[in-house]
Amino acid sequence: RLGLYFDPGLLSLLSPPPAVKCKTGPLDIVFVIDSSRSVRPFEFETMRRFLIDIIQNLEVGPNATRVGVIQYSSQVQNIFSLKTFFKRADMEKAINSIVPLAQGTMTGLAIQYAMNLAFTVQEGARPLHKKIPRVAVIVTDGRPQDRVTEVAAQARGAGIEIYAVGVQRADMNSLRAMASHPLEEHVFLVESFDLIQQFGKQFQDKLCAIDALINYCNFGNHSCQHKCMSIPNGYYCRCNDGFTLQADGKACQASDICNGIDHGCEFKCVSTPGSYHCVCPEGQQLHADGKTCNKCKSSHVDLVLVIDGSKSVRPQNFEVVKQFVNQIVDFLDVSAHGTRVGLVQYSSRVRTEFPLNQYKTAEDIKKAVLKVEYMEKGTMTGLALKHMLEHSFSEAEGARPLSQNIPRIGLVFTDGRSQDDIAEWARKAKESGITMFAVGVGKAVEEELREIASEPVEQHFSYSADFSTMTHIVDNLKVNICPGRCWQGLCGGFTQEFRGRTVASVTFRIQAFPS
């Protein structure tokens, strides 16, 4: 495990070194402080002291180290920028005046703010050509409520060195996703707020040594295809996630070719070194085109897809969502007595695009999907769940009676935070016997996806960083959609209960959030 751990019993054996100001050279350093409601008042006071202790040991000034501080919860607040103060006394006064925001934990939003605003020349950061190290120190006590992996990678790519300091309840996977490499030098976990000041003494030494290293990547002749990582007396190349470094130590090749191309496999794409091939479930044959399979004939369900048509999706991405819907339809045995499919779109209001009993063939459904017009406006996911439960799964709109034991599946697709409460209607939908799947893209909120998803939650919600990488979601839906089928050792996943009756096993396996 990465991080520093402090045993209270050992503290008495540690004699803190005398305070020595950093004199190795200037830094542009921004502290990004979590002031969410989980940080209790007395805990925030220890964090305040931690900041002041570190600043007191920095050589600050317009031509020395510049310091900025921002705090965040559900929003981000600039306490002071890199150009505001050049005296430690002024910084200390501003830090002592901070009033915690006491809301959520939007760490990704805070990193975005630091990258786009706090480290700009307008806010006091020195120009990149001066090669002054830019350092962000993120101090948090919990799990982020938004995505941090992508924005942290962007920040690191923009030349910001990120230290992730977790206290008490912090999530180690999130700290690792935020921090610069090597992780063992940039990720720290402190067991309690009581120990953060002791940790601060150790952390000061690390900050003071930052610019003693020459950044060989800045010379511009490293030839790394993706990322150059500076180390003492040299550098090494690193590939982006999903790629493998080649023998020359510089070039990168996609590890999962299937997720990087439009492979066209109807059921499942399997990556092999430098290539890929398509496969079908056991009991089905691959057609001569090498891509399509026999249809899934044994899976009869009532499936309602609830898609987000809010303004944040944007027209071009809404077309991708419609393709996503049609790729699911392609694999289903749609008929009046087989699988029935309904479609609902929502934004600030909810609209049934077509009910379960309107179309009897997959081709008719796909044509209707392509004609769906984008609604725009807000994101009322709770209202959409209510509509799905009260209308879409009613017998009047084509849902088969519960006595027929036809599984009812609801799949909610969203790209952002709901503007209304989802808890009540998500719970009622599941209690009524509907198996719920939640698919999130972009700024979708993990907490809300988990609220919507049926148990086991990890198998019923999925996330993709953006609309262009949604292929794996469709593939994973297809893997187990046929009851009783097995594929590469994956067999039936869960048994659904309807008012005390155990019915046919219906299996959807959806990839959970990447760590």
Automatic annotation (TrEMBL):
Q: Which GO terms describe its cellular component?
A: extracellular region
Q: Kindly give the Pfam families that the UniProt entry links to this protein.
A: EGF_CA (PF07645), VWA (PF00092)
One MF annotation (Gene Ontology) recorded for this entry:
calcium ion binding
Q: Which InterPro entries match?
A: ECM_Assembly_Org (IPR050525), EGF (IPR000742), EGF-like_Ca-bd_dom (IPR001881), NOTCH1_EGF-like (IPR049883), VWF_A (IPR002035), vWFA_dom_sf (IPR036465)
Q: Where in the cell is it found?
A: Secreted
This protein's UniProt keywords: Coiled coil, Disulfide bond, EGF-like domain, Glycoprotein, Repeat, Secreted, Signal
Residue ranges annotated for the VWFA domain, each copy included:
28-207, 302-477
> What start and end residues bound the annotated signal peptide?
none
UniProt name for this protein: Matrilin 4
Species per Swiss-Prot/TrEMBL record? Terrapene triunguis (Three-toed box turtle)
